[in-house]
Write a structure and sequence with these properties.
Layout (H helix, E strand, L loop, with lengths): L1 H9 L16 E2 L9 E2 L5 E2 L7 H9 L22 E9 L8 H9 L4 E6 L2 E6 L4 E7 L2 E7 L8 H7 L12 E9 L1
Parallel strand pairs: 2-9
Antiparallel strand pairs: 1-3, 4-8, 4-9, 5-6, 7-8
Length: about 180
């Protein structure tokens, strides 16, 4: 967040500011990542206080970003409209090639319920995340998981790892999780 705040300031982009004692740039990322998860093609929303062509914004901002941080496809949306995420894809890479997981994937996809406990404050809630797991494909170095964002309960990458019965303590290296795609409505 701070990287983009500074880049916007250096690029002299006319970004809107929040009101109040400590004004902040009107800048947000619709889906926060869990700690330790990488991401490609993230979505950032910002509100400008004056009109600017998307191509001009892109040109000015790209000059202020470090190597490896790129901006693609800026779009104009209505001021009262927000991005609505419909789903995402995660790649989970294992340190072991051809990790024996095919049987676990088949049984997970065949099951009707996968219950997980969500804790919010003092409240505990059991949620069925099975309907949000659309597909799991095995690859040489891991798996590709497609998840649908649902109102009733969306699966987290750690939920999928647990549901597959993978014990990260026995792997030589931790599982590398990368969000590769975010789908919008």
């Amino acid at each position: 967040m701070r990287l983009f705040e500074r880049a916007l300031r250096r690029a002299q982009i006319p970004i809107g500011m929040s009101k109040g004692f400590n004004p902040r740039p009107k800048l947000s990322f619709p889906l926060a990542l869990q700690l330790g998860i990488e991401a490609f093609e993230e979505i950032m929303e910002l509100e400008l206080c004056e009109w600017m062509k998307p191509t001009d914004l892109l040109e000015r901002l790209e000059c202020q970003l470090p190597d490896g941080v790129d901006i693609n496809l800026p779009e104009v949306i209505a001021p009262n409209q927000k991005s609505r995420v419909s789903g995402f894809t995660y790649k989970m890479s294992f340190a072991i090639e051809n990790f024996p997981i095919t049987q676990s994937i088949c049984s997970l996809m065949a099951s009707e319920t996968i219950n997980v406990t969500r804790i919010k404050g003092r409240d505990e809630k059991i949620v069925n995340i099975r309907q949000s797991i659309l597909n799991i494909e095995k690859e040489d170095d891991g798996i590709l998981v497609q998840i649908d964002a649902t109102c009733s309960g969306t699966a987290k990458p750690s939920d999928v790892v647990d549901a597959l019965g993978i014990d990260e303590r026995v792997l030589p290296l931790p599982i590398r999780i990368t969000r590769t795609q975010v789908d919008l409505l």
